[in-house]
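Here is one chain, start to finish.
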Amino acid sequence: MKSISLDITKAAQFLPEGAVAAYEQQVKAAQEALENATCAGNDFLGWLHLPSSITPEFINEVQSVANTLRENCEVIVVAGIGGSYLGARAVIEALGNSFAWLVADKKNPTILFAGNNIGEDYLAELTDYLKGKKFGVINISKSGTTTETALTFRLLKKQCEEQRGKDEAKNVIVAITDAKRGAARTCADKEGYKSFVIPDNVGGRFSVLTPVGLLPIACAGFDITKLVEGAQDMEKATGKDVPFADNLAAQYAAVRNGLYAKGKKIEIMVNYQPKLHFIAEWWKQLYGESEGKEGKGIFPASCDFTTDLHSMGQWIQEGERSIFETVISIEKANRTMLFPSDEENLDGLNFLAGKRVDEVNKMAELGTRLAHVDGGVPNIRISVPELSEYYIGQLIYFFEIACGISGLVLNVNPFNQPGVEAYKKNMFALLNKPGYEAESKAIQERLAAEA
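Its structure:
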């Protein structure tokens, strides 16, 4: 099988000669620390060898539950936020039909994502849409108390029971949660839901190859065996004993840190395939939450090209030179469509007639990359042979292991997220949650002083 590949030449040229290779020892030390579990956050390294630990029996168990949902639901709602939904959504949208919800004679249930916002209109419109439909729910929450997801699950549980009856509803509600504790675990045990465990040593943003991602992906009709195989092969290809010059993850981590040290503080993840939008969204959480701490970290941004070239292209070409780009390039489109000829040729585009649309897109990609490099934007290129479960599995593990290495080279703990609690504390205080009385009083005094 082919593999994804990495080209850093158009990024390394912005660094002094030998600058990338100079990171070899730091990268090697990071790899050793991960392998030996001697790094900061070493209690969250369950993802490191997760692909190779997944057995056919486990995949069959996940697939069996997915089959039950697929047979009994026309719609499946995945309730989760952050790492509890982004990975699954990224894979499903990368592999699926862009207009799946409009396709007649669907072979697969419609997969919806909720529990990732507190939008009243969104939730009202969701419940309206589900009226009269046979729907099921995958509730993904380690604690069961995350506000966005818990609110959504309350609404969905009630509606599912009202529409299908309590006995039937319990067969189409699945919990993915902690093994022993938390509100979601208590609810699952009490109601008799089928459940899967989120491993204690796998953080949410690294959880796409656990049931958190595998079950929704299987429900959508995709081959999770192939997805895992791709990740397994990338685990081998990026192991600590693979030479630095041949290790994609080591090279990516090194060049990112080299560019950051030279003042490139923003990394823009770019794609020329609309299906990859949520791959970038998942990647933004993975790197932003892992590296953004202690006043450090590359800011992860993303653009969908060529669409965003018509809105962000000017800034990227001539704005502040604090950015670099990482382009995910898909080598082969899965469909064939030719540029049509037009007798009147009013738009002057007949010179493209007969060419594959993908060829035009590839020339837009190459032309943009050349222009941006000329404009002072370092470019990294990740080439993916095609959009398939196997190669998306490779891509997921590549980004995960490179993230772990890169964060350790940056000298932060890539596996915690202390900063995300600050807004929650303020929100709970403003909502007068029991136990937050002191914080509530302090905030009210602050707001009064600022008024």
